Amino acid sequence: MAGCDRSQIRVYQAAKDVEAPPPAASAASRASAAIPSLKWETLPQGWKDLGTSSRTRLAAFSLEGDSGQVGEVSVIALPGMGENDLEFVNMWRQQIGLPEVKADELGKYRSSVQIAGGEGKLFDMKASEARGAADGNSVLVALAVRDGVSFFFKLGGPEALVNAQRSPFTTFLKGVSFGPAAEASPRVAATGGGEGRTRQPTWDVPAGWSQETPGPMVLAKFTASGEGATRTDITVSSFPGDVGGLLANVNRWREQVRLGPITEAALAGEGQTLELPDGKATVVDVTGSDSKTGKPARLVGVVVPRKGETWFYKMMGDSSVTGREKPGLLKFVQSAKHQ
């Protein structure tokens, strides 16, 4: 795999030693909400149903273009997210290497769309906006809010494929319907601060990490510095369900260092297993160039499924600093003590 010399699953068993005091735990968890099921009569031609793996991941589909390009549609339901359009758009833009937009620019990327017989929003993020050519991944996301639950229909893949699938995608949105609600969710995960944040675990923070103010959709943020102005950034976030599944999130990280997506068959060679006190996590280590700056960058990410949620630990920055700090990141993940 380009940028990654791993060919098999490896198991990490790092020692747990306290090197710095953990950050204070945040309080508050969001009230529960019922999540309806999703129904559809037919799928667009070429879409393959991948099934669901959690209550908040209502559906997932793979699709392939005429030239062999691969994309995916996922449907995620998140209770109590409110009106966070700007935060979500900037998160999706970051995933494909686009700069953030301000609130007064949001209208350029938002339009109306029919979803399940009602009005919804459609957000359009194109790779060509940054690079001037459709040579990267793009994202088309539809949003419907029903009874306090936000439903995100996300189409992602190479820009040419996303453009070709726009009409089948919007037709699919019109034909879906919501069925009876499932059992109530115990809580909703982090949205980067304020009311509704998941309770933070406590961690053994490696020496040399500086705690920073977390941004949208982030629970905690740290930085570690190297020689000169080199650095790497560490972020922690958490969401209900599997947030599209392991493959989608591995490909999201690969996009951030300008690497192409991999297939389900290649996923085993991309990840490594990290043993945790209460389960296992997947470690991803890829090297490429920062999709924002174009500078060489290394990204180490850890995906931790835990009690109906998925925790994401990401370290990204200068390759030498990231490599130096990787053992500390793994110990940091292993040290998490949940409230």
Brief account:
The protein has 339 residues and is of the alpha+beta class. The chain has 6 helices and 17 strands. 19% of the residues lie in helices and 36% in strands.
Work out the oligomeric state of the chains in this entry: single chain
How many beta-strand segments?
17
What is the count of helical runs? Answer: 6
Strand content of the residues, in percent?
35-45%
| Average pLDDT level | 79
Please state the structural category.
alpha+beta
So what's the overall shape? globular
Count structural domains: 2
CATH class of the largest domain: Alpha Beta
Task: Outline the structure in words.
The chain is of the alpha+beta class and 339 residues long. The chain has two domains: 11-27 and 188-334, Mog1/PsbP, alpha/beta/alpha sandwich (Protein Transport Mog1p, Chain A), CATH 3.40.1000; 36-181, Jelly Rolls (Sandwich). The protein has six helices and 17 strands. The chain has helices at 85-95, 128-131, 159-175, 246-256, 267-270, 319-334, and strands at 11-12, 36-39, 48-49, 57-64, 70-79, 110-115, 118-125, 137-146, 149-158, 177-181, 210-212, 220-225, 231-240, 271-276, 279-289, 296-306, 309-317. It has an eight-stranded mixed β-sheet. The chain has a seven-stranded antiparallel β-sheet with strand order 3-4-5-9-8-7-6. Strands 2-10 form a two-stranded antiparallel sheet. Strand 6 and strand 7 (118-125) form a beta hairpin. It is globular.
